[in-house]
Amino acid sequence: MKKFKIPSVPPTTNKCIRFPNDIIDEVEKAIEGENCTFTAFVVEAVRVALENIEDEK
């Protein structure tokens, strides 16, 4: 059985970015009813994009 470890919250920095309204609407629709925030969705999307870029190199 895997041992439980209390997760640590990574340090964060607040960044203000602008999104096109249609993208905001699509993200909000995608996370509706999910246990997910707009920020969490965007962070995961950026992580996946960065992995894809790395894989292509």
List the topology elements:
Layout: H1 21-31, H2 38-56
Give a verbal description of the structure:
The chain is mainly α and 57 residues long. 53% of the residues lie in helices and 0% in strands. The chain has helices at 21-31, 38-56. The longest helix has 19 residues, at 38-56. The chain is extended, with a radius of gyration of 15 Å. The chain starts with 20 loop residues before the first helix and ends with a helix. The model has no long low-confidence stretch (mean pLDDT 91).
Number of strands: 0
How does the overall form come out from the CA principal axes?
extended
Strand content: under 5%
Radius of gyration: 15 Å
- Percent of residues in helices comes to 40-55%
Write the H/E string, N to C: HH
Derived structural class: mainly alpha
Largest sheet features? none
Q: What number is the mean pLDDT?
A: 91
Q: Uncertain regions: pLDDT < 50 for 5+ in a row?
A: none
Number of helices: 2
Task: Calculate the terminal CA-CA distance, rounded to whole Å.
Answer: 37 Å
